[in-house]
């Protein structure tokens, strides 16, 4: 495999090529920025001495696709539109019985880069590529059961091709291990050159030449990269946003705490009020009332003790279960009762 154009240069040839005259590029401005090394400096013998990197071979399915395509096209109904499509094709003996009735090229199974270049011919027009792919993929899925001979045949060819590919890659790596990649000369095509005007090319070249390296600010320290400045600003904004969210979260926690305390105190207050409004059970207070009655009515009460009469009257009114008023005795009344009642 010998290439027509090279992308590698041997170390021995590199020193000679560096001394060659510079080559101008059509996309460069008036000052003439020139590439270091151009491929056109290589002699034809040197360019053909460097092999091209091998291309990966076809898989078993792709090989089956190639031969099955020929079978479908050549066995379709009607005459072949272009008789020249069978030129250089012959009947092969080393193919399965399924394909002995069709003509094939000697290198029909070869991968890209190995086939001989042929003149482009008009398509047969019998079946579209999409329909052809569907038919062949369906046949490939059933090939193990329907025709195992063909399956083994295409797998054997694929294995031979992959073995040859590995051998070629090994030779290629051994040959190019001491070579250095170089910059190739860019030659625009006529179509691309016609689309772009000369003024646009000169403007691009002038703007590229006007770019100068940034000078240090002081003490040999370069100014920060714009990307670094932008990332620093974004980091500061994220920190500020995070701090704001934390403050808002803490404020919400404090507010919620106050609401919980207020609701707790309100519940306790309501519970206390409800407990005070519950009517008392006279059965549980009967012993206490008897003690109060015996204390108030026991012995003779002095006529001058008017406070005792008032307390006794209030107590007698409260002893009735039907009474809704509670017994209220102040501290002064109790002290007077104790003083005069003890005489």
TrEMBL record:
Positions of the HMG box domain: 54-173
Keywords for the protein's UniProt record, in alphabetical order: DNA-binding, Nucleus
InterPro entries assigned to the protein according to its UniProt record, in alphabetical order: HMG_box_dom, HMG_box_dom_sf
Keyword DNA-binding: yes
Signal peptide start-end: none
One GO molecular-function entry: DNA binding
One GO cellular component, as annotated: nucleus
Residues annotated to bind DNA: 54-173
Protein name from the UniProt record: HMG box domain-containing protein
Gene source species: Stephanodiscus triporus
The organism's taxonomic lineage, starting at the top: Eukaryota, Sar, Stramenopiles, Ochrophyta, Bacillariophyta
């Amino acid at each position: 495999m010998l290439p027509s154009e090279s992308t590698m240069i041997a170390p021995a040839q590199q020193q000679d090529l560096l001394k060659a005259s510079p080559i101008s590029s059509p996309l460069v401005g008036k000052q003439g920025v020139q590439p270091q090394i151009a491929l056109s400096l290589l002699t034809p013998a040197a360019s053909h001495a460097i092999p091209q990197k091998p291309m990966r071979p076809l898989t078993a399915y792709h090989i089956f696709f190639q031969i099955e395509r020929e079978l479908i096209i050549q066995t379709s109904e009607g005459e072949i539109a272009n008789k020249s499509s069978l030129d250089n094709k012959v009947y092969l003996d080393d193919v399965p019985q399924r394909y002995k009735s069709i003509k094939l090229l000697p290198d029909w199974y070869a991968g890209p880069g190995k086939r001989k270049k042929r003149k482009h011919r008009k398509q047969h027009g019998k079946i579209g590529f999409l329909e052809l792919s569907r038919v062949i993929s369906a046949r490939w899925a059933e090939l193990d059961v329907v025709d195992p001979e063909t399956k083994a045949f295409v797998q054997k060819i694929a294995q031979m091709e992959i073995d040859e590919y590995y051998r070629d890659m090994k030779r290629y790596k051994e040959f190019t291990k001491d070579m250095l990649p170089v910059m190739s000369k860019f030659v625009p095509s006529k179509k691309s050159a016609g689309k772009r005007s000369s003024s646009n090319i000169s403007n691009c070249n002038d703007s590229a030449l006007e770019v100068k390296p940034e000078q240090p600010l002081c003490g040999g320290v370069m100014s920060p990269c714009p990307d670094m400045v932008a990332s620093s600003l974004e980091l500061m904004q994220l920190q500020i946003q995070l701090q704001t969210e934390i403050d808002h979260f803490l404020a919400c926690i404090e507010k919620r705490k106050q609401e919980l305390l207020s609701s707790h105190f309100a519940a306790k207050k309501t519970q206390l009020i409800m407990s005070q409004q519950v009517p008392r059970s006279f059965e549980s207070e009967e012993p206490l009332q008897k003690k109060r009655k015996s204390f108030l009515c026991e012995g003779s009460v002095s006529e001058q003790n008017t406070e005792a009469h008032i307390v006794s009257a209030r107590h007698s009114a409260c002893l009735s279960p039907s009474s809704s008023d509670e017994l209220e005795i102040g501290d002064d009344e109790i002290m007077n009762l104790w003083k005069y009642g003890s005489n």
